[in-house]
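#data-curation
PF: Archiving a pair of folding outputs for the training set. Convention for this channel: one message per protein, sequence first, structure tokens after, nothing in between. First:
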Amino acid sequence: MSEKKKSAYAEAGVDIDVMMGSLQNIKADVKSTNTDGVVSEIGSFGGLFKSPGADSLLVSSVDGVGTKLKVANMANVHTTVGQDLVNHCVNDILVQGARPLFFLDYLGTAALAPQVFEDVVSGFCKACRENGAALLGGETAEMPGLYPNGEYDLVGTIVGTVERDKLITGETIKKGDVLIGLPSTGLQTNGYSLARKVIFETAGKKLDDLVPGTDRTFQDTLLAIHKSYLNEVMPVLEKVDVHGMAHITGGGLYDNVPRVLPKNVDAQFDRSTWETPAIYKFIEEQGNVDHEEMYRVFNMGIGYVLIVAAADVEETNSILKSNDQDALVVGEIVEGSGKSVLIN
């Protein structure tokens, strides 16, 4: 019996049969993320979700994982970047007090590699389950000639909800408030273009080399999953009047915290209050990167910041620690003009 003739579209680089087979393989995993609000099945033209109600606001955000994908490709490890993307998006809306409802993804590639696709989606599903969000739908686009062969891009959109009277805007932040820093799990999803250049080109390191001063490889360090702070921070929001929060992504402490500051105060961080992880010291020294620039490119060990009244610090830290979240008092709010000021 003769082999099935390859379609003209497949000859051009897009095999619909491969795509449809992979979509069938992920259906059960995606369905495992369903929450009470989901009222549609995967494969519909649009995902359906129940409205959270008239007294609630919808909060949305869209983001990617940048050139961390290059490291995933180097290591041939694709189960973590989906988790990175979901968690990053969850943190972005958490700063306004929002809990996620659902997540949508985009994966663009030259030609679909079924196992890579399924590994990435498994990461989406794992993180969605952990954050109580539904993977409501997505788009997988094969575009030979636009993307390099063997590589792919990821983008995620999240939609969450917060009650109107519980929205956190930062406008109540005042002089004397305290900055509480939650440690990051690594580079998270920012600064990878500089990190890759320094580590693999300038320093000539390999993925399985150990980061100096640690017992972890560069692969494990660079692919460490971007942490979601949702399950640790939400219990704080239920009991403490949090004045403001910031997710420390691209722009670091310098650019992210001012996004929630009133114009009459500054956030003064004392860098002596936390230990800078070894990976950043390596990048700074090997790449001859200016010390202040490091705090603008990377999170430098602080992944999330809460701003609370001084009287609420003890309770805030107690709640965080009861949920296995380390917390550090890393600074205070002082008079100023809406900037981050880093000292020591």
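PF: Second:
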Amino acid sequence: MNIAYFTNIKIKESSGGGSGVNFAIFSFLKKESSTITYSVIKPKFDLLSKIKSIFLKKIGVKRNYHYFSEKRLLKVDKIFKSYKKEDNIDAYFFHGFTQWIKTKPDKPYYCFNDACFATYVEIYNNKSEFSTKDLKRIYKQEAEWLNNAKKVFFRSKWALEETKKKYKIKGLNFENVGVGGFIDIPEKDEYKEGINFLFVSREFIPKGGLVVVEAIKLLRKTNKQVNLWIVGDDPGAKIKAIDGVNYLGFFKKNIKSQKEELVKIFKKAFALIHPTLKDTNTLVISELAYFGCPSISTDKFAIPEYLIDGKSGYLLDNPRDEVELANKMRKMIEDESNYLKMRQFARENAVENNTWQKVGERIFKSIIASK
């Protein structure tokens, strides 16, 4: 099958997150397709719309979502049309949704994303800042574009159902294919000892860093062996000075030496703590699970699809309740037999279901079946 792949990310950007997803899916399609082309379309933002948006925000007036202004979306479509379309191309594959909603592909097209624009705005933006009319403009166009796709691939059933509900569409062409992690899968679980809870995040406070610190304080009142390892966003000097808290640094997976250091940390982690209120699906849960590391995270978003409560860790009813978090952490510490079962299940479940090999196979199988 001959596929033309369109994205807004350069192929060399592959450290994780959206860039990692882009790299993983393209790499799999390239391996399976007879021919595949890679095209990057990322026009500059609409400067006038951005200036106006910033000004309106400053004076407290609802603003337009400038990144997806009509002018910029039309520019994306113009560039898309300018690409020479080979006669032997069977289909298009788009990384993401919203950027492409003005395009009208002349052949079947497929797309893959973590969530629709309406879901994204609610989780990552302050929705009340934006004009309802302008948001509806984008929602309407995205719903129509998704409806016309041959297949729309989601990273979770939660995001799939959210899109159907928010856009009031049946989504008969929607399919949940899951998501993988961006780290090499070890041959076995190498954890030996230590009660080192791990917190990994690019945003310390939104992902629940302060709650984690308070929970650690509670646990250390009776057990000084409990420690907190922080990776990613620097929590600041005040947090780092707390007894039992260790900031290990920020690691880039695309730098070999830093990736190797991160792997060493993952191998020694007792459990991942991730009480987030700002997420769709979180890759770090699967990444730690490859090492046999269970997690404690929020019973929200797509997280319950990757963290099986009571089997690969625990879900939190209130991710901002340090007492509930501390109790789940204590439960994991005190029940050693169940903890070891969790490590085994977490690894088996992740390796068998949540890898990019598995995700790629699901996508390609679906594409071939829909021809």
